[in-house]
Amino acid sequence: MNASLEIRTDLRQAVFALSDALDLVGVDDYHHGKRVGLMAVECGRILGLETNDLNLLLDAGLLHDCGVSSTEVHHHLVEEMDWPGAQAHCERGNALLSAFAPLAPLAPLVLYHHTHWDQLPALELDERTQLFSNLIFLADRVDTLAAPHYGQQSLLFYRGRIRDTIARYGGTFFAPRLLEAFLHASDNEAFWLYLEPPHIHARLGEMAQYRQPQLIGYPQLRQLAEIFSRIVDAKSAFTVEHSHGVANLARLLGELAGLPEASQQKLEIAGLLHDLGKLRVPDEILEKPAKLTLEERAAMERHSFETYQILRRIPGLEEIARWAAYHHEAPDGEGYPFHRKGSELPLEARIISVADVFQALAQNRPYRAALPPAEVLDHLRQLAAAGHLDAEVVELAERHLDTCWRAATGGTL
Ligand SMILES: [Fe+2]
Ligand SMILES: [Fe+2]
Ligand SMILES: [Fe+2]
Questions:
Q1: CB within 8 A of 25, min separation 6: which ones?
Q2: Which of 33, 55, 114, 386 has the greatest number of CB atoms lying within 10 Å of its CB?
Q3: Could you say which ligand is closest to the alpha carbon of residue 327?
Q4: Minimal CA–CA distance to 359: which of 231, 227, 229?
Q5: Which residues are near ligand 1, the ion (C-beta closer than 5 Å)?
Q6: Angle 51-63/32-46 helices, nearest 10 degrees?
Q7: For the residues of 160-218, what is the DSSP string, one character each?
């Protein structure tokens, strides 16, 4: 394989960009993960923590809600101080992160980020895990209380009330040491104002500059992409394994088209990440058992653009970002959101589009049952004849229909 074609990227920057995808779950309440990370770091500084620990807290803040895909769960978590259903997303997040060695140190912090301080001793954790997970909890709860006031003239006015509320939970929900650090850090107006855009981006950008890059290649990038594909696919029971199936089929079609191994790997990553932007689509639209209204369609059609905005910021993934972003573009220029057409659409982007439609048709959806291979092919042919899908890629799928169907569904015929 030509070494220059290998994918290489910086894990730190990838995590940072991908945390934007998690922020999308807030729909209107953006940047929750970033604010939690930033607040945890500010408190950590007061506690005199070392740079490595501050970086760990920042990453834990960015990713602490990776177990949340559903907009409904997100609403509960940001609207209720102590929601009884909270532990499930901590466990999901822990399972996702502990499976990937470079991010595994974050897993215990995510697992206990809704556990009250006075319940932690019974779990026999080391002191650092107790303290750090509790700090994420504290920052998370502060953000819940502050969320309605960001971007409002009254943010600084409400900070006193937020500090008083948090202080009432010292010794029960939160470690007294952490409470003290928070009260110290948040006594400063700048603490609160840095949490709002555009200041939060500038602040996090500065922090990122001082971090050592951590280069990763295809196997690790694939694992990271797999984690995020699971977060996206978990959004609805109807999309479980969708991204995974698109990735498998896209790789297979790339191989059948005679593309080099490096392109096949990139196709796989693009397939895993193509629907990242769907995290912003409210659950009720994704799960609607009927045709979408024009307004709902408009909300849905943002998603591939959002995918692009996240991925294009990851160095080394520029091509992957384009292929993923074009998955609803069409050879006739009638797709969205860029209306690319003809030679503006690379073969790999056309492959992702076909794989996306193929997998979706082969899967149960709220408004119809899964279609068998012959019917999937019928639909693909019609779309190709109308200029919406690439005819040669569809022909390739036709020639290897059963293999393609198995790649897309993981099923046996
Ligand atoms: Fe949270
Ligand atoms: Fe899509
Ligand atoms: Fe898709």
A1: 65, 68, 69, 70, 71, 74, 279, 280
A2: 33
A3: 2
A4: 229
A5: 65, 140
A6: 160
A7: HHHHHHHHTTBTTTB-HHHHHHHHHHTTSHHHHHTTSTTHHHHHHHHHHHTSPP-EE-H
User: How far apart (Å, rounded) are the C-alpha atoms in residues 231 and 105?
Assistant: 19
Residue ranges of alpha helices (H) inside 25-86 are 32-46, 51-63, 71-79
Q: Is the pTM of this model over 0.85?
A: yes
Please compute the mean of the pLDDT values over residues 356-364 and round it to a whole number: 95
Q: pLDDT digit string (tens) for 214-241?
A: 999 999 999 999 999 998 888 887 788 8
Taking ligand 3, which is a single-atom ion, which protein residues have CB atoms under 5 Å away? 275, 356
What gap in Å lies between CA 34 and CA 32, rounded to an integer? 6
Nearest ligand to the C-alpha atom of residue 65: 1
Query: Residues 6 or more apart from 121 whose CB is under 8 A from it?
Result: 130
**Domains (ranges, CATH) in the chain?**
32-196 (1.10.3210.10), 216-409 (1.10.3210.10)
pLDDT of 385 > 70? The answer is: yes
**DSSP assignment string, 379-398:** HHHHHHHTTSS-HHHHHHHH
Q: Which of 278, 288, 291, 341 is catalytic?
A: 278
Which pLDDT score, from 0 to 100, does residue 4 have?
Answer: 42
Q: Which two tokens stand for residue 207?
A: 């922090």
pLDDT over 50 (residue 3): no
Residue type at position 283: D
What is the average pLDDT score of the chain? 92
pLDDT score of 2: 44
**pLDDT recorded at residue 412:** 60
Q: How far is the CA of 284 from the centre of ligand 2 (A)?
A: 16
Minimum mean pLDDT range among 33-42, 67-76, 354-363 = 67-76
Residue 266 is among the residues annotated as catalytic for this protein: no
Cis check: omega of the bond before 176, within 30 degrees of 0: no
Enumerate the H helices of 257-410 as residue ranges: 261-273, 283-286, 294-300, 303-311, 318-325, 347-361, 373-385, 391-399, 401-409
Beta-carbon contacts of 62 under 8 Å, excluding residues fewer than 6 positions away, are 15, 16, 19, 22, 33, 34, 36, 37
Burial grade of 323 (CB within 10 A; 0-12, 13-18, 19 or more) = buried
Most confident of the following: 145-159, 219-233, 254-268 = 254-268
